[in-house]
Amino acid sequence: SWNTGNIIDEQVALIREQVGDGQVICGLSGGVDSAVAAALVHKAVGDQLTCVFVDHGLLRAGEAEQVEKDYVQATGIRLKVVDAQERFLNALAGVTDPEQKRKIIGREFIRVFEQAARELDAERHVDFLVQGTLYPDVVESGGGTGTANIKSHHNVGGLPDDLKFTLVEPLRTLFKDEVRALGLALGLPEEIVWRHPFPGPGLAIRIIGAVDRERLDVLRAADLIAREELTSAGLDRDVWQFPVVLLADVRSVGVQGDGRTYGHPVVLRPVESGDAMTADWSRLPYDLIARISTRITNEVPDVNRVVLDVTSKPPGTIEWE
Ligand code: XMP
């Protein structure tokens, strides 16, 4: 029978056996899978593990801090933070095509992670790379294993030959709910353990139009309000994801304060789903939607309209890009 304590003991023993006294690297994305995988490996081999967090500046409000402060405090993990915000913004400047955004972000992510891995390897010869692969990922990809291939983004290739690490995948036999239970048992912050799925390219694919710092700040502010209100309504676990999308290239007329405004609409896209393959729009209470709308238009400069996406998947996708 399934028991959190047993799973942890079993995985810790397996990791120790695989890793021996080798050095291990793990990329943290801010999501639950990499966070739990790293925490398990840390429990097994302690400071033989070094985590790398590439801050691409496309996360939501407070998420980078949760990794850098709360997660490190809860686990005692050694973390190398790479501030790559400028680099990603420069690479994305003027780009509006969704697939182009994904390609650029995937490419830059690999380059930055590779550089960090090289530096660490020079310091303390690294043999192993931790990945938060879950059982459904294993089944989906035909069960193959062996070489390093960072899977945190779509359209991302593997690491170059001279950086061939052996994979450590302590979550390979587990489902998402089991991973969450392990995360809680390992003492990880609830905000990380219960985080909704979030796309690798982050807020870049929730800005319809080119990405820049100002637009990211506007979207972050609107997104934070939606999350705060969902949480205080006690409905976090009733939705699968709640993308908030900024229609940065669209303007609409409004009347606010002293007169006419010409601002941007924000789209609320709360969905229910089991596996993201199909989804339906969440029938959130109207008074919650109303609170979110009022707060966003009052508190977020440049936003004068909030709309609700009532499209299922198919035909719509969950994300707008
Ligand atoms: P769609 O929009 O295709 O999304 O219905 C299905 C699920 O995948 C997530 N998503 C991504 N995740 N990189 C990711 O890591 C991506 O480029 C990407 N695009 C979409 C989306 O958030 C949803 O959970």
From TrEMBL:
It is an enzyme of class 6 (ligase). Keywords: ATP-binding, Glutamine amidotransferase, GMP biosynthesis, Ligase, Nucleotide-binding, Purine biosynthesis. ATP binds at residues 29-35. Its EC number is 6.3.5.2. Residues 2-195 form the GMPS ATP-PPase domain. GO terms for molecular function: ATP binding; GMP synthase activity. Pathway: Purine metabolism; GMP biosynthesis; GMP from XMP (L-Gln route): step 1/1. Signal peptide: none annotated. It catalyses: XMP + L-glutamine + ATP + H2O = GMP + L-glutamate + AMP + diphosphate + 2 H(+). It comes from the Bacteria. GO terms for cellular component: cytosol. Catalyzes the synthesis of GMP from XMP. Homodimer. This is GMP synthase [glutamine-hydrolyzing]. It comes from Virgisporangium aliadipatigenens. The gene is guaA_1.
